[in-house]
Amino acid sequence: MDETTWNVRETAATQTRYDRIAPLYDFMEALIERWRFSNWRERAWSLVTGPQVLEVGVGTGKNVSYYPPNVHITGVDLSDKMLDRARRRVERQGSPVMLFQMDAQALKFPDGVFDSAIATFVFCSVPDPILGLQEMARVVKPGGRIVLLDHVRSENRLLGRLMDWLDPLVVRLMGPHINRRTVENVQRAGLTIERVEDVGAGGIVKLIVARQD
């Protein structure tokens, strides 16, 4: 199977997986969302500058309440079912957001149209994360900031191996890969890393701030 065929199949499988879990997605993460994720999301969004901001992987709209004032948010997601829930959340909160069904690996925007871009817990699920990161970089203006909040493979040897072993099961049940090396992927995508912060969970969750040169 060539790389293009693999990517098409993996992308379709990812879309189907998130369409399937969309009705339960918020419930599945409710506890950890209140306990940890909410603080991390707020921190990530504090680093975003506008006026034009792209959110990749908007999901069910969990970030809507953290959107900064006086910016124009464009949100995209692969899953229509997830977007349906995001649209309802946007309507309830009255946020001026434009939402589109779109593949992070093939963004349908011209080059350099956004001042910054952000993705929270997304690049653990993109089939080709380097391609997706390159697409984010392409649509952000030169010098624009790209903010990523994501869980990554542990640097601990034993825990890292355990994450490798569990990864296929987690993907089938929940969707994300738990053993992605996202910091390295950002560098491989040609972005310049400004800083990396361990925000919690023993270094498994990282806040990555990069820029498009």
Explained architecture:
This protein has 213 residues and is of the alpha/beta class. The protein has one domain (3-211): Vaccinia Virus protein VP39 (Rossmann fold), CATH 3.40.50.150. It has six helices and seven strands, in the order ααββαββαβααββ. It has helices spanning 3-28, 30-45, 80-93, 129-139, 157-173, 182-188, and strands spanning 52-56, 72-77, 97-101, 114-120, 140-151, 192-200, 205-211. Strands 3-2-1-4-5-7-6 form a seven-stranded mixed β-sheet, sandwiched between helices. The N and C termini lie far apart (35 Å). The model has no long low-confidence stretch (mean pLDDT 90).
Summarize the structure.
Helices cover 43% and strands 24% of the residues. It has 6 helices and 7 strands, in the order ααββαββαβααββ.
List the topology elements:
Blueprint: H1 3-28, H2 30-45, E1 52-56, E2 72-77, H3 80-93, E3 97-101, E4 114-120, H4 129-139, E5 140-151, H5 157-173, H6 182-188, E6 192-200, E7 205-211
Parallel strand pairs: 1-2, 1-4, 2-3, 4-5
Antiparallel strand pairs: 5-7, 6-7
Helix pairs in contact: 1-3
Q: Which features characterize this protein?
A:
7 strands, Rossmann fold, 6 helices, alpha/beta, 24% strand, 213 residues
Number of domains: 1
Q: Any idea of the CATH class? A: Alpha Beta
Give the class from helix and strand content and strand pairing: alpha/beta
Major β-sheet annotation:
7 strands, mixed
* Rg for CA atoms: 16 Å
- Going by CATH, what is the homologous superfamily? Vaccinia Virus protein VP39
